[in-house]
Design goal:
Blueprint lengths: L3 H4 L3 H94 L6
Length: 110
């Protein structure tokens, strides 16, 4: 027949179990810390690489933007020069037409 003491589990094994779990955790801590450091380092490295990549892409885009701005400025200057040339040519062409019309005795409407 079992006595009451036999039916109640001994507390010492549980404490040993807790202690052994605690010991296991303490043993794992340096590994966990190392693993966490590696994880943190890899995350930092990954973020740094991504930042470099995005910075490089931004620089390339800024270069393209600058190039396009220069092309636009050149196009504006070319059109302005062409307009000035046309403004100079139109009176000359009108004058030649008037001279030709006079020679042919044709009235010129201005």
């Amino acid at each position: 027949m079992m006595t009451l003491n036999d039916q109640i589990p001994d507390e010492k094994p549980e404490k040993k179990s807790k202690n052994s779990k605690l010991n296991e955790r303490e043993e794992q801590k340096p590994q966990n810390i190392k693993r966490n450091e590696e994880t943190v380092f890899s995350i930092l490295e990954s973020l740094s690489n991504k930042e470099k990549k995005l910075s490089k892409e931004k620089d390339q885009l800024l270069d393209v933007e600058e190039s396009l701005k220069k092309r636009i400025i050149n196009e504006i200057e070319t059109k302005k020069a062409r307009i000035l040339d046309l403004q100079t040519e139109i009176p000359e062409v009108k004058q030649r037409i008037e001279e030709l019309a006079k020679l042919l005795e044709i009235p010129v409407v201005k």
